[in-house]
Amino acid sequence: MKSITIKGSQRESVGKVSTKALRNAGMVPCVLYGGENPVHFSAEEKAFKGLVYTPEAHTVVIDLEGGKKFEGILQDIQFHPVSDKILHIDFYQLDAKKEVTMEVPVKITGTSPGVLLGGVLRLNQRKLKVRSIPANLPDFVEANISELEMGNKLYVTKLGTPDYKILHPDNTVVCQVRISRAAMKAAQEAAKAEKGAKKKK
């Protein structure tokens, strides 16, 4: 999985006053969990653009002053209800031997016969929750639609590899080919024409 480096500064004071001062200075207060002790740090808000405002999934290298580096994933993020500014971010520290859960995007591949016949592809799940050791985390889950006929659904049971586990019920629909209004109307008109032809006979 691709990685993004966030440069930040460790912070000792974590009270409301210091947190407000950080935000006023354009900084985002953050916490890294999962290690021996939580690591409190801050980084410029613009440093998170490539991590937060993207459909892609990334791991994060947190590069703090003094040479301290930690590898983690985004766990939780809080936005201001009005301005949408980032208020706080929680990260989870990665351990090469421990499995971790993460949401990754779904990537559609192939061409659906149902779509070629006028059907409409609907993506029900844009992201899927997966679990694996950090080294096996995928950039995306591939959903091949080459066998989807009109009206067919693609379930999570058809996706994935032995490298990671998809954490969704077996009946979860990832995408489906629905009959479009135009195709439905054409089918109805064809049925009416066939019925009329039979009556004439």
Automatic annotation (TrEMBL):
GO CC terms, sorted: cytosolic large ribosomal subunit
Domain Large ribosomal subunit protein bL25 L25: 6-91
Keywords noted in UniProt: Ribonucleoprotein, Ribosomal protein, RNA-binding, rRNA-binding
Chain ranges of the Large ribosomal subunit protein bL25 beta domain: 99-179
One biological process term in Gene Ontology: translation
GO molecular function terms noted in the UniProt entry: 5S rRNA binding; structural constituent of ribosome
SUPFAM superfamilies reported in the protein's UniProt record: Ribosomal protein L25-like
NCBIfam families named in the record: bL25_bact_ctc, PRK05618.2-2
Oligomeric form and interacting partners: Part of the 50S ribosomal subunit; part of the 5S rRNA/L5/L18/L25 subcomplex. Contacts the 5S rRNA. Binds to the 5S rRNA independently of L5 and L18.
Stated role: This is one of the proteins that binds to the 5S RNA in the ribosome where it forms part of the central protuberance.
Annotated family: Belongs to the bacterial ribosomal protein bL25 family. CTC subfamily.
Name of the protein in question: Large ribosomal subunit protein bL25
Gene: rplY
